[in-house]
User: Fold this.
Amino acid sequence: MATDTLEKNLQQLRQLDEADQKKVAHMLKQLIQQKKYRYRALRQELEKRQNEIRQGNTLSHDDIWAGRI
Assistant:
């Protein structure tokens, strides 16, 4: 269902002239730069690393310096 909505929105975007498409692109860029979206990937990476630590999948200082990465 979300794919249908996305496709419909893309079709509508294609109907706009170039100046209005640039306005929409600018607005989208502003939305993506909001804190709630900007930190989503970082949050996911931190959760992944926390799970690795809980499972004991960590490197020691010696491992790093010995090149066993």
Observations:
- The helical segments are 2-15, 18-32, 35-38, 40-54, 61-65.
- The chain has a mean pLDDT of 87.
- The radius of gyration is 21 Å.
- The CA atoms of residues 21 and 27 lie 10 Å apart.
